Amino acid sequence: MDKLKFGLFSIVVLGSLGLVWYWSVSTIESGSEHAMRERIQELEQENQVLTKQVKDLESELILLKPVAEEPKTVVKEPVKEEQQPASTTTTADKDQSLINELQKLITDKVMMKQGSAGARVGTVQRFLNRYNNTSNRVDNDYGATTVKLVSVFQKAEGLTADGEAGEGTFKKMIEWLKVN
Question: How many domains would you assign to the chain?
Answer without folding.
Answer: 1
